[in-house]
Structure formats: structure tokens, C-alpha cells
Amino acid sequence: MEGTEQWKVQVEQLKVQMEQWLERGLEFVHQIPPIQLYVGVGVLLFTTLLLLLTRLFKRRKSNTIVLSGLSGSGKTILFYQLRDGSSHQGTVTSMEPNEGTFVLHSEIAKKDKLKPVHLVDVPGHSRLRAKLDDFLPQAAGVVFVVDALDFLPNCRAASEYLYDILTNASVVKKKIPVLILCNKTDKVTAHTKEFINRQMEKEIDKLRVSRSAISTADISNDFTLGIPGKAFSFTQCYNKVAVAEASGLTGEVSEVEQFIRENVKF
């Protein structure tokens, strides 16, 4: 009983003290000129709103890198090389996206200091490309893999696929960087990245002209490419486009690893 009485006394004292603080606070407020008071309240409300909006719209930095390209270009082998340093005995055909979140194989020794990469290998078959739309909105970067050995017969198809990526709304609005990765460059008869770059620019130049002539209702792309009256160049794209070389079979993937780390920060 004695403890209960002491608690009631303490509560009553606290109540009296709070009433005194409230009274002093009201006296202080009444002493402030109305304009200063309104300004102070306005600043407080604006600051609170700004903090809430910043927290609401602040987007978490993505760690997703999307591997895309035609079937047979070597995307899946590159996926395995980046993940565990293995080529899986050569040709690998994937009909479903390969996904994994890991520290790149070459960085395993310092994995505690690095941010894991979420790597997605999207099948290149034309009937399965729609799956790419599931991953592009969350991508920090896109690696478009090109078969440098068998490039010319597939140049048109590869350029059309790349055109669709470069005019995709997510890629354009978020300025998602794209790396054109010329794979299989360990072979003597493989084309150079400079040659592949020039040929794809020429094909995309033809594509943008032919597609712009189609009725707007028939165009599925969200944006157009290039500058009217000028030959197309990748430098004209809304986002950064770079070209590099690799060899999935021999494990020469340093340039793609560099691209990944430039866009998935430590």
C-alpha cells in the first residue's frame, strides 16, 4: 500500500510539472509575433514533408545485372564463369532464366568487402524474350552478348534485339547502361569489337528509318533512337553504351566484370 501511495504522489507531481511546462510554453508562444510563428510552423511542416518524400521516393540501389542476347551467343557460359569460374563443358542452352546472387568468382577472396551481384541470364530464343521485360525495370546494367565468331549471319537479328532494348522505357528513363559484349574473341576468325560496333550501328540506322515510317499505332517501342538527318551512333543513345570483348570458354571475362562493378557499387 505504501508503494502505491508513493507512486500516486510521483504521478501527481509529474502532472503538476507538465502543466507548468505547458503554461510556460503557451506564454512563450504568445510572446512570439504572429508572422514569426507562422513562418516557424511553415518551415517545420515543409521540413517534415520533405523528409517523408525523400524516404518515400528514395530508390534502393539495384544490384541486378541482366545478360541478354541471341541464343548461342554464350550468355549462359558467361553466367557460370562469373559465378564459379566454370564453363560447364562448353555449350549450354537455357530455356528458363538463370538467376543467382553472389560475389563474382574472381572476387571471392575479398567477398566480405563486396556487394553481391544479382545476375540474370535471360534466354535468347525469340519466343522467350518477353521474360526480359520482367527484369529490365530493376536492372543496374544490361550486358548484351554477341557471338563474335558467327556475327555476320546474325547481325540483323542481334541489332533488332538490341534496338528493342535501347528503346525500352525502363532503359531510357532510368538511363540503364548497356555493354555490348563481343564473346568468343579467343577464336582466330572472330570479328573485332570495332567491326561489330560499326556493323550494328549501320543496322540500327536502317531499323530506325524503317520503323519510323510505320504507323505510330504499329510501333511497339517506347522511344526512337538517333538524331534525324544523321547516321546513327551509340553515342546518341539516352543511356551509356559501351563495347567490350570476352571469351566465356577460356574465362576471359575481366571487361564484363569491370562493367558489373562500375554499376554494382561496393
Give the terminus-to-terminus CA distance.
Answer: 62 Å
Shape: elongated
**What do the pLDDT scores average to?**
82
The CATH top-level class label of the largest domain: Alpha Beta
Q: What would the CATH topology of the largest domain be?
A: Rossmann fold
> In the residues, how many domains can be counted?
2
CATH architecture of the largest domain: 3-Layer(aba) Sandwich
CATH superfamily of the largest domain: P-loop containing nucleotide triphosphate hydrolases
Number of strands: 6
Helix content: 40-55%
Figure out the total of helices. 8
Please summarize the sheet with the most strands. Answer: 6 strands, mixed
Percent strand equals 5-15%
Oligomeric organization of the protein chains: single chain
| Helix-strand string | HHEHEEHEHHEHEH
Major sheet strand order: 2-3-1-4-5-6
Low-confidence stretches: 215-219
Q: What gyration radius follows from the Cα positions, in whole Å?
A: 29 Å
The helix/strand class is alpha/beta
Membrane topology: Single-pass membrane protein
Main location: endoplasmic reticulum
Subcellular location: Endoplasmic reticulum membrane
Protein name: Signal recognition particle receptor subunit beta
